[in-house]
UniProtKB/TrEMBL annotation:
This is Uncharacterized protein. It comes from Bifidobacterium thermophilum. Keywords: Membrane, Transmembrane, Transmembrane helix. The chain crosses the membrane at residues 18-38, 50-73.
């Protein structure tokens, strides 16, 4: 197996883990929490500064989850848990289990 094959399989694993339904659900939840915290703390910290910090934290989360996918740890196991939470809050969404 050549270095190019290893790099290509790692790149595919990175994006497949990053775009797994469980990861996307977790990413959306973190984005909503960061947005709400940005409005809550706008008096002590400007909203733009908090949004920049939250954005950098979300980018770090994306990189960590992607590298976990390269190592073989996927986030597809989170899908049933996300569906359970969506069912509890009666959200009109359902994440398809792969």
């Amino acid at each position: 197996m050549s270095f190019a094959d290893i790099a290509a399989s790692g790149w595919k694993a990175f994006w497949s883990n990053l775009l797994a339904p469980g990861t996307i659900g977790l990413f959306i939840a973190l984005a909503v929490i960061c947005l709400l915290l940005g409005f809550a703390f706008r008096r002590t910290m400007s909203g733009l500064q908090f949004a920049l910090r939250a954005g950098s934290a979300l980018l770090a989360f994306i990189l960590i989850v992607g590298f976990l996918g390269v190592l073989g740890i996927d986030m597809n196991a989170l899908t049933p848990a996300i569906n359970w939470v969506l069912e509890q809050i009666h959200a009109p969404l359902y994440v398809k289990v792969a």
